[in-house]
């Protein structure tokens, strides 16, 4: 028999050797999963003795993590804006940065929201869960991603207020919305060469346009006015260096009140604009 704390210490050493900076936190979370306890209660279980089965599960997952597989793939979920979302290799692992877009969206009222490139559905599902009167639609080119978005919408009890459709940005979208949100792929082809190993486990088309990182914004900004109600709002997540260019695209499309909003680290993260009344 072996104690959880001793196994955690050994796992931290293995993961630290793989250059994983979050090794202590990851080791505790993997142990919490092996013991089937809440991660926040792991401190109370450090002296637990592991069964052979728990030990095997723990080390299988530590080895996966040491290969730089993302924690969300190993655990099967990711906490986003206080809710757990099912995550598989078919969808982008939701980032904390995207909570900036959520905060911005919730800062004004909306009734009908469109989420372009919905992936796991984390943005749309969160917005509908936070606004019980709102309805929405989510689109993605990936049918496999929409299967996961559906599961998450059901899990968070908003499935009856949303629909999901395969679409190349606006290609099958009909009607008009008072809020359009999107976190499109914005990593440039060049940046893809230098990214962390974890990103190789994510769908490439969720990360990059294989070009200058701005392809999706050109389409979304140019077409958004046709799908926004008067006074309707658009919010897109951006990479920290893309603010000025995306803001210009929105202005060129005739949108007003264009603003670049920072994230908690003061980096440009969201561009917002309104359709004139
Ligand atoms: C950065 S991920 C965002 C996923 C999710 N909304 C989030 O914030 O975690 C971009 C998403 O856009 C989708 N996508 C890529 N190209 C697209 C296109 N041409 N039309 C619609 N969606 C697209 C990808 O499949 C992926 O789900």
Key attributes of the depicted protein:
277 residues, alpha/beta, Rossmann fold, two-stranded antiparallel ribbon, 11 helices, binds S-adenosylmethionine
Strands, helices and their partners?
Elements: E1 2-3, H1 4-17, H2 23-35, E2 49-50, H3 52-66, H4 71-75, E3 77-80, E4 83-86, H5 99-106, E5 112-116, H6 122-130, E6 135-140, H7 143-155, E7 162-166, E8 177-182, H8 189-192, H9 204-207, H10 215-223, E9 228-237, H11 243-252, E10 256-262, E11 268-274
Helix pairs in contact: 1-2, 1-3, 2-3, 5-6, 10-11
S-adenosylmethionine is lined by residues 92, 94, 98, 116-120, 122-123, 139-142, 145, 167-169, 183-185, 205-206.
What does this structure look like?
By secondary structure, the protein is an alpha/beta fold. It has two domains: 64 residues; 194 residues, 3-Layer(aba) Sandwich (Rossmann fold), CATH 3.40.50.150. Helix content is 38%, strand content 21%. The protein is elongated and about 70 Å long. The N and C termini lie far apart (70 Å). Bound molecules: S-adenosylmethionine (SAM).
């Amino acid at each position: 028999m072996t104690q959880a704390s001793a196994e955690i210490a050994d796992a931290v050493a293995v993961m630290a050797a793989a250059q994983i900076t979050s090794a202590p936190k990851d080791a505790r979370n993997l142990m919490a999963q092996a013991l089937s306890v809440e991660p926040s209660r792991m401190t109370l279980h450090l002296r637990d003795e592991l069964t052979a089965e728990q030990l095997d599960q723990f080390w299988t997952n530590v080895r996966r993590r040491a290969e730089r597989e993302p924690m969300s793939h190993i655990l099967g979920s990711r906490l986003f804006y206080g809710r757990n979302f099912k995550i598989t290799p078919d969808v982008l692992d939701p980032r904390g940065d995207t909570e900036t877009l959520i905060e911005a969206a919730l800062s004004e009222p909306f009734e009908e929201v469109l989420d372009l490139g919905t992936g796991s559905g984390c943005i749309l599902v969160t917005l509908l869960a936070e606004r019980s009167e709102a309805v929405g639609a989510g689109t993605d080119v990936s049918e496999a991603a929409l299967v996961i978005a559906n599961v998450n919408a059901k899990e968070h009890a908003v499935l009856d207020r949303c629909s999901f459709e395969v679409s190349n940005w606006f290609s099958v979208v009909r009607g008009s919305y008072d809020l359009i949100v999107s976190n499109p792929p914005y990593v440039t082809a060049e940046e893809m060469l230098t990214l962390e190993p974890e990103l190789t486990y994510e769908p490439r088309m969720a990360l990059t346009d294989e070009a200058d990182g701005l392809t999706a914004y050109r389409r979304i900004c140019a077409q958004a006015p046709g799908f926004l109600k008067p006074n309707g709002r658009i919010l897109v997540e951006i990479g920290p260096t893309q603010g000025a260019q995306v803001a210009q695209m929105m202005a060129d499309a005739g949108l007003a009140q264009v603003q670049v909003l920072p994230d908690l680290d003061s980096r440009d993260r969201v561009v917002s604009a309104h359709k004139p009344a």
